[in-house]
Amino acid sequence: MSSSLKLIDVTGADKAPVNIGQALGRLFEKVPALWTLASLALLFGAWEIAGLVPISIAFPTFTSTVAAFVEMVLDGTMGHAYFLTLQPLLLGVAVSAVLGIVLGILMGLSLKAEWLLAPVFIVLQAAPMAALVPLVTFIYGIGLTAKTLAVIMLALPVIVLNSYKAVRHVNPSLVAMCRSFQGTRLQQIMKIIIPDASPVIFAGLRLGIAAGFIGVMLAELLITPTGVGDLITYHRSIANYAHMYAAVASIIVVSTVTLAALQWFEIRFLRPEKRKR
Amino acid sequence: MQQAARSTIKAAATNDEAIVQVRGIDKTYGDIEALRNVDLEFSRGKLTTLLGPSGCGKTTLLKIIAGLVPATAGEIRVNGRVVTGPGPERAFVFQDFALMPWATVMRNVAFGLELRGVNAAERKRIATHYIEEVGLVGFEDKYPHELSGGMRQRVGIARAFSVNADVLLLDEPFSAVDEQNRRKFQEDLLRLVDLEKKTFIFVTHSIEEAVYVSDRIVLLSPRPGRISQIIDPKIDRSASPDDIRRDPGYLNTVEEIWDGLRHYVD
Amino acid sequence: MTIFGFRVPMMASLIVWAILWEIVGRLDLIFLIPPMSSIIETGVHLVQTNSWQNASIITLRSFAIGMALAIGIGVPLGILMGRFKAVDNLMGLWVNMFVSAPLSALVPVLMILFGLGETTVVVTVFLFAVWIIVLDARAGVMQVPPSLIEMGRSYGANGWVLFSKIILLSALPEILAGIRIGLIRGVKGVVIGQILVSIVGYGELFELFSRSFEMESFWALTIILFAAAMLLSALIETFEKRIEYYAGAR
Predict the structure, then answer these.
(1) Which one is predicted more confidently, C158 or B220?
(2) What CATH number does domain B18-89+167-263 carry, 3.40.50.300, 3.20.20.150, 3.30.470.20, 3.30.457.10?
(3) Closest Cα of chain C to A232: distance in Å?
(4) For the residues of C40-92, what is the DSSP string, one character each?
(5) Domain boundary among A8, A41, A59
(6) Distance from CA of A165 to the nearest CA of B (A)
(7) What is the pLDDT of residues B73-113, one digit of tens each?
């Protein structure tokens, strides 16, 4: 009797002083969104404090940056800037995707195409293509074409190489299976190789879009002062730092959201085997 | 006299009704000689096992029969016709299942028919029949990653059955399946052999498995692969699975094969 | 073309492209593409000039400092994220965001914070390279087979010994893979940083050549840069293969 009572006492005593750290830990485990919140709070808090100090006169607080963002959204400048920036981006990514996937698959299927094209794209992917961006202005001036070309230059190599590697690494057992059931070469490509390669092709597409964002920003900062790039340059020139930071942060967020949305779309609609039921 | 205590050993394989004939097959990969002068015949309606230690070329021989791998010399005839590639009279079951991860069980089973251009309704009818036969009713709309290893191979077997081939080629189909499921599988295989009346060519490295399921066992020796022995286990298949595994004929055959293979190990 | 080996004969097709370039250049179709032979000739002269040598030293210095920072901070951070759930949860969001963010947009911010000079380029290199190094180091630490850790424990290793002799060594191939990709990204960073700052190193030269339409010099510099980038990634790849030699057994 006494021993069992003691036991209860002991366990009770153990639990009695509520350890805040432990309780918090348990709470965080149950609600993963809290981690996201804490993570956001950490960076935004640090940003706010650094802006309040300030660590530099050119470093606005987080709140003033948000205020500047809201202001630019409301007066329409943000919307207009994105309208201009997203055009070459979409166009360039679309061209790169179609051309890149076709070329990559071709290189994966044909040894001749591989021999001729793979080295070029290996070089282009490893090399800093940004160095060539100023060149496009010579031919295409400072219009939409130049910006689109800048996007293609940065996005195409990675899409090509991923599609190529994807086809090269298709499960050979599935190809043998298709052959054993007398599938034609066309059936093999359409029903086995492309579906099996598509996750890696999609990963390449995401990398290509990320590179496209870099390309379009580079073009807008370097050669064509329009869109979000112009927003950054303009507000920097008039020392309107909160607005400048808002524009920079917005493009980073837009690119992140775009990539996340693409991944969600891929898993939701194209890859049934990755979906949790 | 025990009715099944004898195993017949023959020097060469000959049979009146050979559906698959292997004539002087050599296979070299670069400098490596995988198979040397293999002559074999496989009888219609029987289950023949190619058995041997790893590196004896048993899978290579099966893939040559399937038309997936070209032979360096010699020829394969199926129903009297020379094999130049995969054909509709043969169906292959893969060691790693070779299921399309993006397709449901139904589509995987019907894939051979899909490639032949069979219409959707007919495909579904045939596939449903074989899904039922291998015991996967209720899993038609599942994806391979939702199935256990054993169930995945049932899909592979149903797919091979659904194209109605005369010869089924099984490449170590149960090697990626755990031991309990393996036993169940072997029993199911015997039931399917009985039901489908097809010719089975079966590759395994498990002696027990070979003796349990086979009408005839072809022992291959390694490097280069040659036929070292042909054994026809005399086992009463009508007995219960447990009785078969305790049958002296079964045990003696296992022992005999092990004696033949022992010196290849290490 | 693929009968012997894989890489060397495949790269031979670059010669075909160079010849094609030469022909297009000789045809004088567009001033943008001068003949390959005159580019190479200019390149030989270019590397002897003081301005190129100075620019190269500045570029290499910015790159080296930026990379040293990226590795020095990225690897420990990645290991911390791999070992401690809390660090992972707090930092994961930002690392994953910045690894694919358009960092070129951030360079103007760096320019006003760090001035129009080398520091900005160094920080650009750091920002381009660090995130993938963090992610790969994290993945490496998280992929250490539990049986290996249990083995270490069962032989009495714990704390520092367990970490340095088992976890770190086991994660090394992934860490190196991250550093390799980080280096390639760092090269892109140094170029983007210099081009946007446009008054230091190769950025200044590119600006000069393109403003005065010296296409031969422009292409010569580009080819030198591309060759250096390829050489760097080939070097690390060889080094990595040596590491993978033992990692292959895992």
Answers:
(1) B220
(2) 3.40.50.300
(3) 8
(4) HHHHHHHTTSHHHHHHHHHHHHHHHHHHHHHHHHHHHHHHHHHH-HHHHHHHH
(5) A59
(6) 19
(7) 888 888 888 888 888 888 999 988 899 988 889 999 999 88
Question: Residue B83 has what pLDDT?
Answer: 84
Partner-chain contact A195 B87, CB within 8 Å = no
Structural domain contains residue A268: yes
* pLDDT of B265: 65
Asked whether residue A11 is domain-assigned, the answer is no
Q: Cβ–Cβ of A126/C112 closer than 8 Å? A: no
| Domain interval for residue C122 | 65-247
Using CB atoms, pick whichever of A173, A184, A195 lies closest to residue B94: A173
Q: Are residues A46 and A90 in the same domain?
A: no
User: Are residues C102 and A126, on separate chains, in Cβ contact within 8 Å?
Assistant: no
Using the Cβ of A172 and the Cβ atoms of chain B, whether some distance falls under 8 Å is answered with: no
> Does A26 map to a domain?
yes
Model pTM score: 0.83
Q: Do C105 and A221 contact (CB within 8 A), yes or no?
A: yes
Structural domain range at position A43: 17-59
Complex prediction ipTM: 0.84
Q: Is C198 left (phi over 0), alpha (psi -120 to 50) or beta?
A: left
Chain C residues 25-84 within an 8 A CB cutoff of chain A: 30, 32
| Residue of A180, A182, A186 to mutate, interface with B, max B Cβ within 10 Å | A180
Longest dimension (CA), chain B: 56
CA distance B253 to C145: 42
Do at least 3 CB pairs under 8 Å connect A with C? yes
Residues of chain C with pLDDT under 50: 2-5, 7, 249-250
